[in-house]
Design goal:
Elements lengths: L1 E2 L2 E2 L5 E4 L4 E5 L6 E3 L5 E6 L2 E6 L10 E8 L3 E13 L7 E14 L2 E5 L2 H5 L6 H10 L8 H15 L1
Antiparallel strand pairs: 1-2, 1-6, 3-4, 4-5, 6-7, 7-8, 8-9, 9-10, 10-11
């Protein structure tokens, strides 16, 4: 974890995906506390590398922690958001329903783009669009089956074309 510009190793932490917060355990008191998100620039959890993105320099509202899936010339981020809806039912005092949404963010030529469709994603790679489509089709990677895999493989292939 990198907090306030200092790298810390071996710090036990959890990621609260609902609140988008990093929680650490005080090793002396064993009391969990949340860190100031703006000061956590990155952390690693379960083989995932999370980066705190800010929307200061662009018009996108991107503030929060994103899973970095490709850190090359083209950066590929995934933001998983869970929300909890509580409702009362006849079976229990209350029932919690979890909803998950996934956002895809591609940073190419230092410009960030939210990806909401296959065509929108491919339009970011105009000059190589057909080669990327052919590669993915040949390898039987379908956007509708696994969007994350599709985009990650396409980006890696694109970077190898150069």
């Amino acid at each position: 974890m990198v907090y306030d510009g200092i790298k810390y190793k071996g710090v036990p932490l959890k990621y609260d995906i609902v609140k988008d917060l990093v929680v650490v355990l005080d090793t002396n008191t064993h009391i969990p506390f949340t860190l100031i998100s703006d000061k956590v620039s990155e952390f690693w959890l379960l083989e995932h590398h999370f980066i705190f993105l800010r929307g200061e320099n662009d018009k996108l509202n991107v503030n929060g922690f994103y899973d970095l899936l490709n850190d090359g010339e083209v950066k590929f981020f995934v933001k998983r958001v869970k929300t909890i809806n509580t409702s009362s039912s006849s079976f229990s005092a209350f029932e919690k329903l979890f909803f998950e949404r996934v956002f895809y963010l591609v940073e190419k030529d230092q410009v960030r783009h939210f990806v909401t469709s296959k065509s929108g994603f491919l339009s970011l790679f105009k000059e190589s669009k057909n080669a990327i489509k052919d590669y993915l089709k040949k390898n039987k990677i379908d956007y509708n089956d696994d969007k994350e895999l599709y985009m990650k493989k396409a980006i890696i292939y694109y970077e190898n074309l150069k």
